[in-house]
């Protein structure tokens, strides 16, 4: 795979079950019920503009030409900015333009960058998609890049790891995705896993929106 020219972008989000870290009202048996508690304080660092340089099918810079990008799925918005922040109890994280934390997935790969979250997984963990022009603050400009997803859209990577939000986070500053399935973690501004406020057990992901009420299967998803 071609060498990737990375530009900066960061993302972090997480879910918690420890008493000291859990969002107010959090219940491990009902991951959709918690309310948020975190209040972010900006962690000032350098801002960087993405540079152009992409190669379809491989990892590329967020600033690459987007003329070959596939259309965005219905209801999906671009990730317009990545900002490194610090949260009480959680510590460092990365948020998007709406203040939602970004996550990384252990079943993905960063060398080479590759995503393994598709279909219903991507419904629960929407990928951080880009047109190549995200605004960056508080992250290293050489840590960010993109990877082309199977549907042709481009997903932001941090240290090679594809970034996601979590639909279980209903408000900015929540990290209900932290430790879900033992494979999802809030991402630090350098792309490493944030291992603060880990849940005592192994939380389950919320049900994907496409799951019908008539579906008799349990909500024991493997993502």
Automatic annotation (TrEMBL):
Region (Disordered): 39-83, 196-223
GO biological process: alkane catabolic process
InterPro entries, per the entry: Lipoprotein_repeat
Biased composition (Low complexity): 39-65
Region forming the signal peptide: 1-28
Keywords: Signal
Protein name: Lipoprotein
Source species taxonomy: Bacteria, Bacillati, Actinomycetota, Actinomycetes, Micromonosporales
